[in-house]
Amino acid sequence: MDFKTASKLGNYISKDYAEDLFGLLVNYQDISASEAASRLNLHISTAQEFLEAMASLGILTRKEVSEKKRPYFRYSLKQRIISMEIDLGQIAKRQSEMQAVRKIREKENAGARFSTARSHQYLSSVTIWTGEGRERKERKINLTAPQGKFLYHLPFPTADHLSISDIMRKAEIDDTVLPEIFDIVELLEKYDVIEVE
Amino acid sequence: MNLHSKLKPEKSLVGFIPAAVILIGFFMLWFFWGKQTAYGFMAFAIFAAGFLLLITYVRILNVGFLTNALFLLFAGIMLTGIGGAPFELESGWAGILGAGNLFFMILTLYLVLSRKYKWRGREVLELTAAPVEGTRDGFTARPHPIGKAEYSGQQLMDFTKFLRRNMIALPYVEDDRVFYAPITMAQSFCHLYGWNHDLSGKTWVSFDLGGNVAANIAHKEYLSYHEDLTFDQLCDSLGSLFIEFMEMFKKGDGIRIINRMNALKENPFT
Question: Which structural domains are found in chain A, ordered by start?
Fold first, then answer.
């Protein structure tokens, strides 16, 4: 299951009425949205939305019926067990050699404030300001130790660009933390603190 | 005066604030409570300043602090003997104190004018800027790792004592590294007597026990240059300057460091 599907399922399952609705579905052979809504004292659109969402996730089957009136759907449970399995590897930062050779440096007049750790051997946080005037907001990003060491060795705005892998080598950071380095580089690139050659 | 200086002239009057406060207090007390109270206050203030300098001498070990302290302590004792003050001095004692006071005043003045009793912050900044040609700005408020230098722990400690005694930089010694803050007379009050010893936002060079050297230049110091010097070159230069100082010191050429600074002919009162 991908993260978006899991997120949708989680959202509906967490509704107050979800257990009661599933209770009807597991006990009835099939049920329409109006029957379920009247049974649980819900608005018909609430029940309709829930049942449609479950059908779209493949948990229910729906069948169109018409009994001398306009057609409507009847829903029945397709499976009695709902399992949610998410492969977090799918959302891990894609590590590629292409990314590691990108040359970067701090952007001139980035307007970010770097705070050094007490030992002054690495950075502890980066503060960024976004927006203008009253909309101006401060965002402080606390750094992990490898991120702090990496940014400590980030070339200055007037220095030559260096590749991510070269900076990591200078900072004596292990390759295993590459994803968190990519993550902070990506974020600071988004906020115009880091520029890519 | 160095005609090719890259630094703006020093205009800070912070160094004169203590003397100004004592003088203002003296005249106010004279006006409201009379001569005796005013002289009593003056004597107390000068004694206090003398003791403070004596304590600073123990910390820095530059003889200028000692002669200045003795000059002030003699002056403080003499002030108590001025007519109307709480303690009247016999004329014999007054003569001895007067001669001592004059001796230490002349000695202190000599040490100041010969730049033996002078914080070298401006000289360090001037030497730092000398090899920097670019004017691309690029200031960023974070430390710059310079590279590696070779020294032993004992050499680092000896170098620290040398920089401190010659007032080239004020060292902040930590467990695994030493920070050297090049300061001016105006900044020395906050560094020596202030309670905030956080070096964030200040200019420093650090040497750790692993041989790693890093440098940081504060925005205030960066603005003290006439031009927006290329910042990474400036930080590199500051770190390299101290590495060079370390190399010269290891060879026993410490005097050459002093000579290079004296050659800049900076104002001895900065």
Answer: 3-77 (1.10.10.10), 95-196 (no CATH)
